[in-house]
Amino acid sequence: MALEFERRRNSGIAETDLDAKIEQQRRAWEAELDAQLKRAAIAHAEHLERVIKTQKQIHDVENEQLVQVVVEGNRERDRRPLPLSGNKFDRQIGMHSSNWRPSKKTLKSRAAKDLENRRAKIYWTICQSLTDALVSGGTAGAQSQKTPYKTTLKEIALLKQLTENDTFAQSVCAHFPSGAIERGVPTEQGLIKRFDRVHKLARCTAQIGDEGGTLLRYVASWLQSLVTFELPAAYSADDRLDLNRYEPYELLARCRHFVQQKDLLNAVRVANLIRGESARIFSDWLNDAKAHLEVRLLVELLFAHAQATGIRTTY
């Protein structure tokens, strides 16, 4: 009896140490990822600033060239001898008016392009804000101590107004679920934090089937979860799973691995294979993750379209 107690105590200590090491490693990975994201954001902001400065310089040079061409044309026409018949003053006014018509059209065209380019930049900024909100519930630079579980999609209404003449953007905006816009969408960070609690409960009931079980069976499943360890493994989305051989602890370990890698898509795929009481525990989290992935796909489509629009309107 004492030997069994000592073995259980040593197993508990080993599991605690392993969890602590895994948590420490996960925090180190998250810190490194945050640093990389911040550096990428700074580099992107500097790139945008350089592009805007270059566009302004090109715009100023082209305007100067346009004004110079118009002025030279007017000077050349002024040097030409005019017929003596008719009113000389009226002829000069008509000549100058005809000279300015092409330049007016050019300036109007340039103003329209500038407006379209500014709209594209606003479009891109809104999509970036939506992406940040889906990940952490706010902007990337927000220093929030508590990550909200859900985020609102109030920017969708602004996108519809901004892209009222864009058929593709309007079509994508129309596919956003009304419930997601009204009640919000779970964030990636919120789903990851909630997964830890769901995962622990699912491990405790991994041996309970669809038909349920007695209290003794629940206790046995809980005890088995205590002596079953999740060793670190390099799981891949390309791994083939044998559906005829159901291994709940392996599926839970795979699901946890993908969640830690922030790969919610493959985590959902694996979670769909879980059966029994664990599947019932996972059901709410699974529905929220599917809603998040659905909205995120639409936002990524808009974001890619915004980038393409920005490139197309850059001159």
TrEMBL record:
<feature type="region of interest" description="Disordered">
    <location>
        <begin position="78"/>
        <end position="109"/>
    </location>
</feature>
<dbReference type="Pfam" id="PF09731">
    <property type="entry name" value="Mitofilin"/>
</dbReference>
<comment type="subunit">
    <text>Component of the mitochondrial contact site and cristae organizing system (MICOS) complex.</text>
</comment>
<keyword id="KW-1133">Transmembrane helix</keyword>
<dbReference type="InterPro" id="IPR019133">
    <property type="entry name" value="MIC60"/>
</dbReference>
<protein>
    <recommendedName>
        <fullName>MICOS complex subunit MIC60</fullName>
    </recommendedName>
</protein>
<dbReference type="GO" id="GO:0005743">
    <property type="term" value="C:mitochondrial inner membrane"/>
</dbReference>
<keyword id="KW-0496">Mitochondrion</keyword>
<comment type="similarity">
    <text>Belongs to the MICOS complex subunit Mic60 family.</text>
</comment>
<keyword id="KW-0999">Mitochondrion inner membrane</keyword>
<comment type="function">
    <text>Component of the MICOS complex, a large protein complex of the mitochondrial inner membrane that plays crucial roles in the maintenance of crista junctions, inner membrane architecture, and formation of contact sites to the outer membrane.</text>
</comment>
<keyword id="KW-0812">Transmembrane</keyword>
<keyword id="KW-0472">Membrane</keyword>
